[in-house]
Design goal:
homodimer, alpha/beta, Rossmann fold, 2 domains, five-stranded parallel sheet, 16 helices
Chain lengths: 441, 441
């Protein structure tokens, strides 16, 4: 196993690099340390009391083994695996597959993984019509067992399976849900459909290292052990009490301070690698839903939140960077840089007599994309715009596990620092109630 | 041809609907009208002087005919068409194909269109290795002829074509570039490679109705006539001097006022339809790059900008809506709703004895996704969060052309209203210089 630690560079958040308008001074950082140390103590206490079980997920070797075994026993049986889930039940496994599964481009390896998380009738119908149901497994994922989008997709699939496969239909289903209660758990018992459990103390956006993420990853043949080992390495780093040398804490602290002291209402996650774009989607939910809150823990109205945006380097240099360079001072950029892309493409010297073309010859696409990232970072710095960088030595399971766990810890740390509950989402209830009301007969 | 006018609903931007914190009052709107009327006069004058040729693109029937003819003459020859372009040279055609081309899902119709806009070595190498070069056309798109990402991709492709096809290589290339000058134009002349022109007065982000968008659309068999007819209908609406009944002007005016009077630094485009997500990507460039500017026309420092974000309904209800409901009052949501998805999926009554499941039975996915959109809109309204809606009667070429042109007019109108030049992008120069410097030998 390669130990691909993601390393973090926070230098371009600092006062002496980006100037006083957006840069954090030593005084601002050290002034926040007492509260940050309290936040650390708070997390350690709650972890010890079993209130933050997401920390412990990468240590559950037995569960990982069971998932691996179940997936291996079905090897060769499926051409397609469809994950029916939405939000945290889709973003985690989709990010894993997008980064590690070589799923995006033809010819996709068998089994192909699909994440039709939306109830778009056109998209869902097109997908179903193009599957060979005889060769397809459906993984239905909802922790509560009652998520409307997932349940309605399940009903559609269930009927089509029944129509085509009769009493073999349940063999094409596997559930991921609460270990004891809820609708899916009931159906699992009633119809003898296999079902993996999700720890009741782990919310959707922290569930990537439960069966929610691990089962699709196992079915796609990803390295669960390396993923968990990376997460454990991040946990080792992420419990260091020395806040400024703990990347998870420093990330959470810096972003919270940039928001509160400098007005950085937006954090842009900008990978210079297509494969890492799913991680930015996953982070969007984690950061938005955990920290976007009306009330703090004392019940005071705060309307806190920092909008997580996704951009793709170098592509979005031709779309968003004009705004990042010259628009309002309201952003911090989190670059993801890859040291070794695994593959490289040499730019040939095809026109030796044309200097404007020959200039690029002999370089590689990896050199170009890295040069573009560093140039953009430096141009932003000169314009007084703060950024940080997560450097992936390569895109492998260890690095992805390391990155995911670092950001989960960063998020609960920011919650503790800001005195916000990062585990609830009261703001989405009204929409659910109104949806059901509209469909009542 | 079906006349699928997109209709706009601005009611939930108003004071009496969303309250005073974020709602626009009649006084605020009418107070802005003198400046808005001046902006209209300004646009009409510049249009008449030939300074805004993007307005006239949907009237160029001859150019459209030539593009259609060239594409038709190659019918059946290509299994894959690869568009090499970035920013405005990719976002427009990719949005058209994503909305109208049924490109996203297998089995993709032949020819398959690909938009590898990034210089990601892994992604680009994987794509190239999976193409049959004998059956592939490459459309190289750069207006200046010198965009580094596109030129380097071209050099890689050029050598592989040469290696495989020898002197037949140029037959697998078509350029879209400046009609007279630049590197690609020179190569086109020297090597007898067909090349379509881009009006020199039309910038990348306004180029979707030039050959940049129309050639890939024609190769995919889309209806160019309906696309242009939709854009012409939007132009008819979009020249109405009555600002409040002109959807393009009202869009531009409302968003500018929400930014300046209410602090809405972010506009979220949120389609409730996967197919329309590419339009949100296209809009992100249009709005960010046109209006994110350090200086106004008088040279005063303004650091203006409103960050365009993309979200997908209903999916992002499980990711972003918690933040939109309870976070800072810094956003306006632009919903895209589809009346007729073209396909629908009935939710079956598979478990008549289980009320929680049977509740959904008999409804359709289209009913559900629409109910979710309206519930989210209403929940946001009750929380004092402004939104507007563009209603697509269906997802067809007329509606897409109508929508694209409306937003292009909205953008130049906002520029005229704010006294910002919407056609330049000075902020990206430094990054380009630093990139070249890093790669100098």
């Amino acid at each position: 196993m390669t130990i691909s630690n993601v390393t973090w560079d926070f230098a371009n958040l600092e006062f002496d690099r980006v100037g006083e308008r957006m840069g954090l001074s030593e005084e601002e950082l050290s002034g926040a340390l007492p509260r940050a140390r309290q936040a650390h103590d708070d997390l350690m206490r709650r972890r010890a009391a079993g209130q933050l079980p997401f920390y412990d997920l990468p240590y559950r070797g037995q569960e990982v083994g069971e998932i691996r075994q179940w997936a291996d026993s079905a090897k060769g049986r499926w051409d397609d695996v469809v994950v029916l889930g939405i939000g945290g039940s889709s973003l985690g496994p989709a990010a894993l597959l997008h980064a590690l599964g070589r799923n995006a481009l033809p010819p996709a390896p068998i089994p192909r993984l699909h994440f039709p998380d939306n109830v778009d009738p056109f998209e869902f119908d097109t997908l179903l019509r193009n599957l060979d149901l005889e060769r397809t497994l459906f993984n239905v994922v909802t922790k509560s067992g009652g998520t409307p989008e997932t349940i309605t997709q399940y009903l559609v699939v269930r009927e089509r399976l029944q129509h085509k496969l009769k009493d073999r239909a349940p063999e094409h289903l596997v559930f991921t849900t609460d270990p004891e209660k809820g609708l899916l758990r009931e159906l699992s018992r009633a119809e003898n459909i296999p079902a993996f459990g999700i720890d009741p103390g782990v919310g959707g956006r922290f569930s990537v290292l439960t069966a929610v993420g691990l089962l699709p990853a196992a079915l796609a043949g990803l390295d669960l052990e390396a993923l968990c080992a990376g997460a454990r390495a991040a946990d080792d780093e992420g419990t260091r009490p020395d806040v400024l040398f703990n990347p998870a804490y420093r990330f959470g602290l810096s972003l919270a301070l940039l928001r509160d002291l400098k007005g950085a209402g937006t954090v842009v996650m900008m990978p210079y690698s297509n494969r890492l774009l799913g991680l930015a989607d996953w982070f969007r939910q984690l950061w938005a839903e955990s920290l976007g809150k009306r009330y703090d823990l004392s019940g005071a109205e705060i309307y806190w939140g920092q909008t997580p945006e996704k951009a793709l380097g170098a592509t979005d240099q031709h779309s968003q960077v004009q705004l990042y360079m010259e628009g309002p001072f309201d952003k911090v950029i989190c670059f993801l840089e890859v040291a070794d892309h695994g593959v490289d493409v040499v730019i040939p010297r095809f026109y030796p007599d044309r200097p404007a073309l020959d200039f690029w010859g002999g370089h590689t696409l990896a050199e170009l994309i890295t040069a573009e990232k560093r140039a953009t970072e430096e141009a932003l710095r000169q314009a007084g715009r703060p950024s940080l960088t997560a450097l992936f030595p390569r895109v492998d399971a260890f690095a992805v596990g390391h990155f995911l766990m670092t950001l989960e810890i960063a998020t609960v740390f920011a919650g503790a620092f800001l005195r916000i509950d990062p585990l609830d989402q009261p703001g989405v209830e009204l929409g659910k109630v109104l949806t059901k009301k509209a469909l009542e007969k």
